[in-house]
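User: I'm putting together a teaching handout on how multi-component assemblies are represented. Below are the sequence lines for each component of a complex, exactly as they appear in our records. Could you produce the 3D structure of the whole assembly as structure tokens, so the students can see both representations side by side? Please keep the chain order the same as the input.
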Amino acid sequence: MTLTTPAAPAAVADRTEQPRRRAEKRVTPGRALTYGVLVVGLIVWILPFAWMLLGSVKTQREILQRPPTWWPQDFTWENFGAWFGQLNFGQFFGNSIVVALFTVAGNLVFCSMVGYALAKMDFPGKKALFLVVTFVPLFVMVSSLGLVDSYAALILPFVTTPLGVFLMRQFMLGIPDPLLEAARIDGAGELRIFARIVMPLCGPPLATLGILTFLASWNNFLWPLVAAQTEAKYTLPVALSLYSTGQSATNYGLLLAGSVLVIAPIILLFVFLQRYFIQGIASTGLK
Amino acid sequence: MTQAVVGATGRAPAPGRARAGGASSRRRRQGWVAWGFALPFVAVFAVFMVVPIVGSFAMSFTDFTARDIRSPFAVNFVGLEQYLSVLGDPVFLTSLGVTATFVVVGIPVTMAIALALALALNASHGRFVSILRVGFYAPVVTSIVAVAVVWRYILQPEGLLNSALALIGIQGPDWLNDTRTALPSLIAMAVWRNVGTLMVIFLAGLQAIPTDVKEAALMDGASSWRRLTSITLPLLRPTLLLGAVLISVGFLQFFEEAFVMTQGGPLNSTLSVAYYTFKQFGFGQYGTASAASYLLFLAIALLSLVQFRVLRSKD
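Assistant: Of course. Below is the structure of the complete assembly, with chains in the same order as your input.
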């Protein structure tokens, strides 16, 4: 990318520049080495995922076999079957989905509302509110005092996040004021302006926020572990963590299949929407 | 800003007084509307952030235990005693050392790998780059619980890693049950999980460096190493600093890796400060737990303050 941008002026510039440019594209030993190291690094990096996938379709006997086999000898679905059969996978999956969807919906609506107030309104206490949004140490107290075993306990603490507010405010600052003024003169109330004018313009940040909150909710572990007290309220990571510290701690086939089931939806989402994921992270780091 | 515009337009037309009065009542009305918009956020923030933070601050000066939940106001005020007992607890001091090691080793390693990857990706082109980016970023989006299962499976005494080491004649240790290798194993896992985030941030920073500066250095015949140390890294400094602060907030709260992999063992060798706090809560020692969590909170708050300053200075 960095090389294509200055290509146009370079073409106009003197001819001596041309050979060097071509030389950069040619595979030099240094470049080959870089690529080689990157590929080896990539293989090491995704090896745990490959090992997880392969292990999930091996039989328990094969998993315990030494030395370990690389490719499954007797391919089996029984580990996945156990999750769908006796282990209530549907319940856990449903819980994870319900919690994630409500968390995402809450964030999309509530963060946009505060973001709108901060970006486009003037009111006493605005500075203090903005300070809270930007300067909140992400620190959730590990306290189980008086928690009830309910979906509300799982969802409510995450239903709006300072980061989401910040993201929405930054985008809404760029919406031209005259547009909103015109609507006000036409007699539209703030709620109507927000819902009919501001929100439809906010597609990109809403997509980023939706994906980031879905990811955070799907992978959230510590809070649900404390807040969900009966199996009926376990989310997928909680269920998996309890099986992997309980009696089946060494039943790796079962646990690996569970891991595949936990990460598959996110990996699929990630592969298709990687631009939004990566933009989201980059925008949290760089304003 | 909007206010200034409203005020100016309100004063300009002929029926000045009526409009000015309208503007001030409208300003008050807008105040209510704005706080109405902020209400859900403020409510959640108050209940789930302010209350626990204030509550545990108060608790850290009392001898509150699980038995006092029924009558929370009957506890005794003990001043700084909880803090002193926490600071005198050898287990807490061990946990301080564990968290410090995790932070001091983990962050530079993560940053170095992320920077090297970002530089390499920034210099490459094509489809290859997006494949690499997806691959190195994948650990960031996956659940720690799921990932912990496969890491335990790889690191078990006869697991994949030791089988590979056996091929070259090395007898690998029992990684997670040896006090010398348990913490390094968790650090490796944390590096693996966090490199992707920093890589993306650094890559964005690298792409923001104006190309003409690099072109000029290239024309002057600067070697690629020279261009890296004299141009790219100095210009990337704010991004590097920001990346360091961002991940250090996470690293200071080191807990999940230890919780899912080693439960703080063997012999407390992976017991972090956050884990110590969690355990004290589990034992019902709410006063002690609150004091310990406040010490950690203080460190994180200081760091967030630095983060805030860094972000501000970029405006």
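A couple of points students might notice: The radius of gyration of chain A is 25 Å. Chain A has 16 helices and no strands.
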